[in-house]
Amino acid sequence: MKTVTILGATGSVGTSTLDLIERAPDAFRIKALTANADVEGLAAAAKRTNAELAVVADESCLPALEAALSGTGIATAGGAAAVCDAARQDADLTMAAIVGCAGLGPVMAAVEQGGTVVLANKEPLVSAGEVILAAAARTGAMLLPADSEHNAIFQCFEPGQARHVRRVVLTASGGPFRDWSLDAMRRATPEQAVAHPNWSMGAKISVDSATLMNKGLELIEAARLFPIDPDKIEIIIHRQSVIHSMVEYADGSTLAQLGPPDMRVPIAHCLAWPDRMETPMAPLDLLAIGRLDFEAPDPARFPALGLARRALDAGGARPAILNAANEVAVAAFLDRRIGFLEIAAIVADTLDRYDPPAPQTLDDVLAIDGEARSIAGARVKDCVN
Ligand code: NDP
Fold first, then answer.
1. Is 206 in the pocket of ligand 1 (CB under 6 A)?
2. Given CA atoms 88, 94, 98, 99 in this order, what sign does their dihedral have?
3. Whole-number Å distance between alpha carbons of 5 and 356
């Protein structure tokens, strides 16, 4: 039996993880569940799974959580530090499914603990990749990628064969605006942006999928996770989201991982790894799917891809600035304070205005993240005025 902590248990990835765990009660036991402010969802999940501990990051929600769990014997805590404490517990496996750089401290705490850390939360790896990887090397923590593309690469990347890898191909659905004109995208609403054609996900990653910044963040994530030159990582649009990514070898063999567009497939792979487990998904019906299409992404309509590629190439603080500005701009778009096309413009502008030295420590990353957020926030205000 594996003990599991889920950081971000009330979100899209968190509830998919709980769904799988609740179907296999003899295989997993929940240590801790965390959320930001969704007391109802957290308390219900903690009761169903008989978790040892439930934590809300928003401390003002703690009294409500205590009331919801009183008499159950489930311990409660509140505040950002308490989320890190939960991540530091000695679970066999920690699912990192908080959204954004808010997950950075908890991911680092889980890595410091040295167990298996399943990474759905991609933003910490983008902003603080070197710091997290160095900590994992020091503590022996195993990082398993739950992001569907990286999980696909993980399944296809033969250990010890890195020198024979010619190319890694990250597939992208293209998001809801893949066939829209620039003019139509200018008027896109948050409702249209979060209506992803293939995947059901949280609001932030759905908007990232619409701008293709998600694929840009994944490009950086892939370069961090796999021993491959960034120039050899290619992005192609594959609108059916059946092939989740591919690894091409020097002999001309290309290995691909296929599956339904449901996060429970890669999450199950991580939960059971190195074993396999059942999932409730119907088998892939290739005859019903019929065809698989591929096309090149359009850099003019989706400038976020180029911004991410250049941030990765430049390295240092650039990925952290890219990520922080994007988080601020996406939140402003979801709040209807800026237009859809202004998201990438604000990221580009923040990168232009701010060029600090490369971060060496987690505190350096947090300082860069904070400064980039304030520059991007000021730019949001310019757009509003
Ligand atoms: P959601 O928005 O659905 O869920 C986010 C979770 O994080 C919730 O549990 C939320 O709590 C919690 N949370 C939010 N803010 C904070 C905070 N400041 N401190 C602590 N906890 C917080 O996100 P997703 O599940 O869609 O995505 C999670 C991560 O996984 C993202 O990094 C995303 O890019 C990545 N990912 C997601 C995929 C998907 O299919 N959804 C696919 C691949 C990667 P509360 O509910 O209380 O707000």
1. no
2. positive
3. 35
Q: Which atom of ligand 1 is nearest to the CA of 217?
A: 34
98 touches ligand 1 (CB under 6 Å): yes
**Domains in the chain, please, with CATH?**
2-145 (3.40.50.720)
Q: Is the CB of 14 under 6 A from ligand 1?
A: yes
Peptide bond into 280 cis (omega under 30): no
* Helix axes of 318-334 and 203-211: crossing angle, nearest 10 degrees: 110
Mean pLDDT, all residues of the chain: 97
For residue 183, the number of C-alpha atoms closer than 13 Å in the C-beta half-sphere is 0
3-state secondary structure at position 327: helix
Structure tokens at 170: 């990250």
Summarised one tens digit per residue, pLDDT across range 204-263 is 999 999 999 999 999 999 999 999 999 999 999 999 999 999 999 999 999 999 999 999
E-state strands within 24-111: 28-35, 53-56, 75-78, 93-96
- pTM > 0.85: yes
- Residue 383: pLDDT over 90: no
Q: Report the SS3 class of residue 187.
A: coil
Burial of 306 (0-12, 13-18, 19+ CB in 10 A): middle
* CA 367 – ligand 1 centroid, Å: 22
